[in-house]
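Reminder: ligand-aware prediction takes two inputs, not one.
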Amino acid sequence: MVNFEAGVRSSRLAFALAALSTAAAVHAQPLRLYVDDDAPAGGDGRLWSRAFQRVQDALTAARARPDLTRAVEIVVAQGTYLADSGLTASSAFVLTSGVSILGGFAGLSQADPNQRDIDQFVSVLSGDALGNDTMNPATRSDNAQAVLNFAPQAGQVEGVTITGGGIAVRQTMFGRVVLSRCRISRNLIASPEQTLLMVNQATLTECIIDGNTSEHASLISAVSSRLIRCIVADNRVNNPENRFEGSLIRGDWPTPTFMVACLVASNTLNTPQMIDYNVQMLGCTVVENTVWFSLGRMTAENCVFARNLMGLSAPVRRNAVQGYVESSLFEFESDYESHWTQLNFYGNPQFVSPEGSDGDPRTWADNDYRLRPTSPAIDRASTRNVIYAVDIKDIRGLPPADDLLVPNLGVGAILYLDAGAFEYQPGEICIADFDGSGAISGVDIFAFINAWFAGDPLADVNRSGTLNVLDIIDFLNAWFNGC
Ligand SMILES: [Ca+2]
Ligand SMILES: [Ca+2]
Ligand SMILES: [Ca+2]
Ligand SMILES: [Ca+2]
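Here is what comes back for the chain with calcium ion:
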């Protein structure tokens, strides 16, 4: 009996799988629906010239398609696409089964509407129904409660800017969020029940989360999720009522949330921790953040922690981490409060230009957190974590590189991975560009000489471990040769 039933089940399963694979073979190409706010009215979305004007109309058409086994890609031209009004308790854009949204297309404004560049052709999905948002909460009363919602079996969202939340991205139960190359920006969370991301088992790849504010305990709730090669910068958690709770990002037990090759910069948190509740950071650069007590109760491997401020009333430069920390660079030796640590090291990470061209370290976008060739973070990280069996790339997508001038002090399968989110590529930084401006000028000579007389390790340009006259000769040789 048992065997018979098992046989029936497996033959049904085989039949179902065969039917599915046939359907997949027939409809290998997803159905494309086009959206462009510059399109003439009345389009059916089947061509650029007949594009829908609104993303909502494409989502409705996708839901009504006769063949639900066929995936749909909603292709969105540059422009700002606002929520419908009256959605203050629901979501502006709901992805249903098999439906994806791809932004960053030129659309009808260009000769080739299929031209795609997500930085040049910005497609904005906004929860702001009236298009009147400022950071004043009163301008948000018309906004949809959430901008994007992933229903079960939804596809992915790639190359759009998500703004005008409250909640920027959430999922219906059993929905699963997949975002790539998206920017989640200038959302304002005013309710204690909401967070910017309310996700479980989400995957965010190469996304930028910046300029968002939460008035309450935590900004992002991402349980059992992965943030890969993402930037989390210039966000605020004000949390005026309870300094003893909340964070920038929180996961949950039992399955950790991974942050891999991410930059976490210039966030300001009136909370005790920044990263909290079962988050594992690998190969991240954590810099220039302000937090009340610690950078987080987390597991960290191969990270760089530097230039962070702690204590909001009288902040001190300190980079404390609580948790297990391995093969990471700390600015100061006293910087972790961990119970378990090994193979960590200390010192100035020697970023190329931590202030950037505007001279202001707090404005992150122009700052250059790549490593100088003299950085102590080069060629000494650990690749023992199982996540590295799959993929090792830095935030730019570059693989580990072996600098032959630096001994390989790492542990694991690869001995020359660097700590931090930016893998130093031998030769990419010229030692003569001493101020990291990207150009070589007389300013670099003054900057170098000042550093040399000050005994700054940055002036050890030939990496001998000591400052001496050979560094001056090597610097001037590089300067006169233009590198
Ligand atoms: Ca508004
Ligand atoms: Ca700057
Ligand atoms: Ca390396
Ligand atoms: Ca090496």
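The radius of gyration is 25 Å. The chain has three domains: 30-190, 193-429, 442-480. We will return to this case in the review session.
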